[in-house]
Amino acid sequence: MSARRLGALVLASLLALPCARPAAAADFVPVTGSGSTWSQVALDQWAAAVKKNGITVNYTGSGSTAGRTDFRSAQVDFAVSEIPFQLRPEDGSPPEVSKRDYAYMPIVAGGTAFMYHLTKNGKRVENLRLSGETITRIFTGKITNWSDPAITKDMNGVQMPNRKITPVTRSDGSGTTAQFSLWMDGQYPDLWRPFFKKKGLTSYYPTLPGGKQQNGSNGVAAYVAASYGEGAITYVEYAYARNAGYPVVKVKNKSGYFTLPTASNVAVALTKAEINADLTQKLEGVYNSADKRAYPLSSYSYMIIPTSTQAPFTNEKGQTLSTFIDYFLCAGQQKAPELGYSPLPKNLVEAAYKQMNRIPGHITAGTDLSRCKNPTFEGGKNVLLETAPQPEACDEEGKIPCGEPGAGTSASAPPGATAAPTADATTPAVAAGDAPVVAAGSTAFAEPVEVAAQSGTALVAGAVATAVLLGALMLPPVLTAYARRRRRAGGAR
Amino acid sequence: MTRRTGAVLAAVVVLAFGATAAADPKTIETATATPTATPSATATPSPSASPSTDPDGPDDPDTPAEPTDPTDPDGPAKPEYPGNTKGKVTLDQSTDLVNQVIRVSWRGFTPSSDAFLSDSTTHVVRVYQCRGQRPETVADCYGSGAFTYPDKPKGGGVLPDGPTNAVTALTASNGRGYADIEVRTIAESASLACDAVDDCSIVVIPNDGDPTRPTLAGQLATQAYLDSDWAWANRIVAPIGFAATAATCALEDADFRITGSPQAKRLVERWQPGLCTSKADLDVDYTSLGEPLARSSFQTNGTDVALTTRPEDTAPSRAFDYAPVGISGIAVAYRVDDADTGKPITGIKLTPRLVAKLLTTSYSMNAACGPGVKDCNKATDGNPQDIFQDPEFLRLNGEERSWPSMAWPTVVSGDNDLTYELTRWLAADPEAAAFLKGAKAPGGMTVNRNFKGAEFPTSAFVSRDPDKRFVHGFIPVFGLSDVARYLVTNRDNSENYVKDQYGNYVKTGPYAIGNRGLFAVVSTSDAQALRFSSARLRNAAGKYVAPTDASMTAMLKHLKTNTDGVTQLPDYTAKDPKAYPLTHVQYAEVPTNGVEAAKASKIAAFLEHAAGPGQKAGIKPGTRPVGYVPLTAAMRAQTKKAAKNVLAQKGTIPEPPGAAAPDAPAEPDAPEPVTLPAIQAGAPAPMGGRLSADAAALLGWLLPALLGTGIGAVLLGPILYAAGRFGLAVPALPSPRLPHVSPRGAGRRRKP
Hints:
The structure holds 2 protein chains of 2 kinds.
Chain A: H1 3-16, E1 31-35, H2 40-49, E2 57-61, H3 64-72, E3 78-81, E4 102-117, E5 119-120, E6 123-124, E7 129-130, H4 132-139, H5 149-154, E8 166-170, H6 175-187, H7 189-196, E9 212-214, H8 216-225, E10 232-237, H9 238-244, E11 250-252, E12 258-259, H10 263-270, E13 274-275, E14 281-282, H11 284-287, E15 298-306, H12 315-329, H13 336-339, H14 346-356, H15 383-387, H16 428-444, H17 449-453, H18 458-486
Parallel strand pairs in A: 1-2, 1-3, 7-11, 8-9, 8-10
Antiparallel strand pairs in A: 3-15, 4-10, 4-15, 5-6, 11-12, 13-14
Chain B: H1 3-6, H2 17-23, H3 29-32, E1 88-91, E2 100-107, E3 125-131, E4 167-169, E5 177-183, E6 200-206, H4 217-220, H5 229-233, E7 236-240, E8 256-260, H6 265-276, E9 284-287, H7 291-299, E10 305-308, E11 320-336, E12 349-350, H8 352-359, H9 391-397, H10 417-428, H11 430-436, H12 468-471, H13 480-488, E13 517-523, H14 524-529, E14 533-534, E15 536-538, E16 544-545, H15 549-555, E17 559-561, E18 568-570, E19 583-591, H16 597-611, H17 633-648, H18 693-725, H19 743-747
Parallel strand pairs in B: 8-9, 8-10, 12-15
Antiparallel strand pairs in B: 1-2, 2-5, 3-4, 3-6, 6-7, 10-19, 11-13, 11-14, 11-19, 15-16, 17-18
Helix pairs in contact in B: 8-11, 16-17
């Protein structure tokens, strides 16, 4: 480091003091990180977005386990992982002790989705809905055929084809696997533990008879999307399913509603996340959220940030890293829904800034969140939460699944249609934050719900929903009568 | 244009070792006495492959090396090794550098012992980027084991700015060789700290072994000793200078968001720092996303502006205009080395059918059947092992040549206009279309049998062959720029199909230079910026044309306008010998209603830039980078018109895409779909069982109608029910047709 550069840096930091964000960009040194592929889609876009500010962030999606290892061995400045360092791993692997000082900082939320590829009568199934127990049975080898009675029951009697299920799991050390196994261990220990033969989570999925394994989030998604992926199902962050244009399972929540991992459903569920003192997450409340909208497998991804200048970290890198963090906690979260994530809610953003302030050389930021362009708290309110659409009636347990004849709405709504925000009911902020997720769904699968649910006032929504439901119930006899009279089949589908 | 920029294309710096050694206090005095120590310079034009399109051209090809200042160095601290007296090194650009790839060529070196780099290869060459114009030791060179930097941990080994950019290369039997090296500015490598003030250097180190121990040359001249003192003494140093720190944007929130077209990424990223420092003071946020998702995001107010190649195929829900912003192409890029010489092969020609063979994984690869082979892949039985054994390819590209083995082709995953257009081009070629339909190619090769039932065009590449070697071999990659990253690091996206001891399928490592057979489908902008060779593709006139500014511009005469009256897509059947078929316009979908004035004026300013300064070629922020060709006058006029409409904010929601568009996918069979009846259960589906865009478009029409019908039925239900129940006459109402009661009506968004 030349004296000239040092001098410039000192000057820059002096100048930076009065204004919250330094304007001088010439002195950003690059920072390097590795880890999670779950959140890589968002990280890559953020890193690209700050290039124009002269900030270089090199990120390698090598899997959470590799990221934590890289951090401990001082190969990277920061790591990204879905789970904290495993200090007392219950799966018998050696403890992950970091000699570098670190803190956990949430970066983006999302849903671990179940992307599947299933064809019935020559058409792709897009309205599959499953209970957590059924999912666990599938991924522990207890349910091996799509026509299994448990699946038929979740589908309220609608039978899926008699076809082998191919569960696709990760072959590499994966935070997604850890999140998924943590959920199974917490919710269905009697199913998970006999299969795992231990308790707790694992980053390495046990071999599953009849299953396939692939390396990385992209790998499992590619397998399911492949033509030979017929019958396959995998767990992967929603962004990967969206990219591939494949449907994901609606998962039953505690209120008996089947929900998708949309930005809003994830945000709703995460309001029940307990944050430990070190900002790690306790998700029991999320898994068991009683909100009808909650997506049970919601979680957030952590950045493991250095809190000392132990090599390879420096104060200058701290300036870069904290500037990057300042971007993605606020404006960068606007990209989340479009990509298949959920923006961090305000409490997590506040907590994240506190952690950011432990980075050596950090900038001053986050003191005035009213300037933060995070789409979840426009004007001090969690807009995403307030406007999160309620599930449709047909998404409730015991009802004809949405998309099935007689369910009241069609599951194969035209692309874009369901997502179109109802004109005056939503604010621009909501449109920016929430609509894309819905839109995404609609390119490959449908969310007919939103038509009714998004119309602002509860009254209107209720009325429309009632009408739809009523229509659904009354349609068949009417059509029969109509058909009889016209002596031809009614084309009411 | 500064003097420095003028030297961009063909600046040449050649310094014999002695010249640098003279100024090097740590080198020995005898070196300065070498007769060849005088700095010399040659003017070598840049390699023909240079894609640089500096508008002002090379006007100062001769940049003499900086004169050195022979001073008396300290006494020798190390054994004496002779300098390099024979070699000459040429850089195709040495000044005004930004973070980019430059080509370093040399001649007069001792030929390497092998065509491929291995641990036993001798006379290996290392190319480093180093601190200072006269690096003192190899410790100044990024990626060397001895590299020093502040706060270096005692154990060393960790590179502070990420993986090394050093390149290891070979010298051919004629004493020549070259390497492409990414030069890094202070923004990418703080530890090198190269910028407009602090010059750096490219150091080329041929390791010819320890001259005092010639008998051990077999060991000492290998890559294991590239950082040795004798190799360092043999170095040739070429100073490089960087452009003034590229303009960077202040950290403030973006004025608006753009989402879409991965093909436009480099263009938008070039514009961003230009726009934020211009008078317009425009801070644009960009998200690279597959166009179908981007269009959907725009129509649902998820983003302010979408970038797309293909037009909307469903009924829009926003008032918007299409504004052309850039023109790029699709390249079939490759890195293929001659198996004899190890030298990169250029000028590869491909027919559409050869591209179809590549993309359908129709070569038998490492699963070829043969006598005594168990467990081979029957789906490619009888087909050549790879393209380099395919008679069709060899006839075109040289049967006598030594070709390497082919790696798995790398393509982008998910729905992308790039994929749709590339496969539409395949379907438009009679030979390729017939091949995809199952016809035998000359020589007997057939499409991978797993592609029966596949439809083309398709918007997504997916794997179709369940053979384990194919499952772990052909894996489409998330993100177009990542596809380029695989090729630039000499990798494919395959993994070992046998698990390692931890149960993981380990990713295939980089292929050694000299031993590469890599193909990737990328944008022309990535191909040119990263100096990939791009295949010369056979166009409809039967000519093999590489993607160049001229050939892409020639294709602009053969664009067909879609029913929206604005967007255009190439007519792949146009018989123009000069045209590169895979040339596409990227359009911005810009909102013309419901956007507040402040944001509208920013979007309009963006379009004004796109229609003006943004089309000027150059290397500075705000200009048009390589791999894009300028918009035509008509397109620029369209963009300016759109800018006015954005300012006015009086637009109306456009009519839904018409059914008669020649290229718009309004009919399921619009662009010559290639379909085989499915042989297996399940739908005849495009590559991944996805709806083709055509079908999707059709559904886009059918389904609103159906939904409308449903709602209509709901409303009529009680009445009809009552009617039926109470025996009233049922009016002959065509109840299932109430197109106006579509949810789109409710979805229309009109703001004051």
